[in-house]
Amino acid sequence: MCYSTSAPTTKLFIDGKFVESKTSEWVDIHNPATNEVIGRVPKATQAEMLAAVDSCSRAYHSWSETSILTRQQIFLRYQQLIKENIVMLGKDLVSGLHLPETHACGITSLMLGETLPSITKDMDTHTYRLPLGVCAGITPFNFPAMIPLWMFPMGMVCGNTYLLKPSERVPGCAMLLAKMLQDAGAPDGTLNIIHGQHEAVNFICDHPAIKAISFVGSNQAGEYIYERGSKNGKRVQSNMGAKNHGVVMPDANKENTLNQLVGAAFGAAGQRCMALSTAILVGEARSWLPELLERAKALRVNAGDQPGADVGPLITPQAKARVESLIQSGVDEGATLLLDGRNVQVKGYENGNFVGPTILSKVTPQMKCYTEEIFGPVLLVLEADSLDEAVGIVNKNPYGNGTAIFTTNGATARKYTHEVEVGQVGVNVPIPVPLPMFSFTGSRGSFRGDTNFYGKQGIYFYTQIKTVTSQWKAEDATLKSPAVTMPT
Ligand code: NAD
């Protein structure tokens, strides 16, 4: 917490205006490469949060009645503005960010209802796909542009208004996105942004005007939000943590596999929910470990904005301490520390939250480093004698976000994709994040809810169905007496 007034403050976005919070409680924002305070984010007051949700409620009526073509046009302009400003948003932050956006622009087909004429004499049924009301999103620190863009464009293009609470660690990106949305023509009140931590989350879970909550982040927060929001009668979709396994078969293309594995384990310092943090070397592929090690050693640790940096810092000193203690727990429980990234020194950034690439081999499923998500540049290596054994290991892990198999054998790939109980499966694709015409399909401990993010599923999450049955009889078909039976 910070009480100084020198660092720049993040505004709230309420009813189309960027406003300074009147709160007395602020959270410091740090540069993870130096730990210098670079800004402050407010914990919005109850009055400010109420003003934001009231603004969403007021805007809902006219926004939901706005023609779908007008809403589509706004998001087409928005997509263009994001593309034009992609450098300012920061290429690393926004990789792939415009994609769900693209899908929002296909809304005129996605919102189509269904029709069945003549279900009985003179009677037709048709359905409308309609918005829910005010929807809310709560987002994590990683992918501070992409994940908000999984949420409010999809919700809004369907006719909902939207309340966003970005991660308090990286709130700036969401504010830029809000400004661009305003410039693209979204009316005041259709998107409001509040900041904060637990109180803001509880406010979203409890406020009766909010009909649906989208959450992406850790299991601790996501399970809590799923339960509290659901108890209050809201729809909740909750994308959470992961332990993604890469199964390496001995017939795989060795060069590609090792390069893909190292990139997917250590890229973004392992702070991706789809990071490939666990390798299972099957049979003869065990002998590839020394070459894997060489590739990991060659990665350069540096501040993310420095040329040639492969592995940047972790988000906070607490995250660094947690990752280091999980590495130690692996050592204490009998794993082999092949590469130790603790105590890495980065010249000019001695106070940053850096952990270098780390590899623990001889890991077993009982170890704490295996059962917990590490969310750092740490690759665990397990071994298996057969594909069946590898599938068994993956399916017993509580998480089900992503996985990949590396093989040149089609039958092996098919067996794996059919037997593995994980939402997103890659075949020689290390990070199989689906493009936006599909949906992000984490499963088991990585997801709560029944309707996934973006794609068709995203549209279903943010809409409800109204079914209209109409009968238009000709004059001479007038009923002669009361019809007491159910019409069929
Ligand atoms: P986090 O859970 O700490 O924070 C996410 C949001 O929840 C923030 O807005 C935060 O203010 C709020 N929050 C944090 N703790 C809370 C609590 N105890 N109660 C209520 N609200 C709380 O997550 P993070 O550290 O910002 O992000 C990393 C996590 O997100 C990792 O577990 C990662 O796997 C996961 N993630 C998942 C996906 C996915 O699609 N499955 C994508 C990205 C990140």
From TrEMBL:
It holds the Pfam family Aldedh. One of its GO terms (biological process) is L-valine catabolic process. The keyword Hydrolase does not apply. Coiled coil: none annotated. Gene3D superfamilies: Aldehyde Dehydrogenase, Chain A, domain 1, Aldehyde Dehydrogenase, Chain A, domain 2. GO terms for molecular function: methylmalonate-semialdehyde dehydrogenase (acylating, NAD) activity. InterPro entries: Ald_DH/histidinol_DH, Ald_DH_C, Ald_DH_CS_CYS, Ald_DH_N, Aldehyde_DH_dom, MeMal-semiAld_DH. One of its GO terms (cellular component) is mitochondrion. Its EC number is 1.2.1.27. Residues 18-86, 107-468 form the Aldehyde dehydrogenase domain. It comes from the Eukaryota. Keywords: NAD, Oxidoreductase. It catalyses: (R)-2-methyl-3-oxopropanoate + NAD(+) + CoA + H2O = propanoyl-CoA + hydrogencarbonate + NADH + H(+); (S)-2-methyl-3-oxopropanoate + NAD(+) + CoA + H2O = propanoyl-CoA + hydrogencarbonate + NADH + H(+); 3-oxopropanoate + NAD(+) + CoA + H2O = hydrogencarbonate + acetyl-CoA + NADH + H(+); 2-methyl-3-oxopropanoate + NAD(+) + CoA + H2O = propanoyl-CoA + hydrogencarbonate + NADH + H(+). Belongs to the aldehyde dehydrogenase family. Malonate and methylmalonate semialdehyde dehydrogenase involved in the catabolism of valine, thymine, and compounds catabolized by way of beta-alanine, including uracil and cytidine. This is Methylmalonate-semialdehyde/malonate-semialdehyde dehydrogenase [acylating], mitochondrial. It comes from Scleropages formosus. The lineage of its organism: Eukaryota, Metazoa, Chordata, Craniata, Vertebrata.
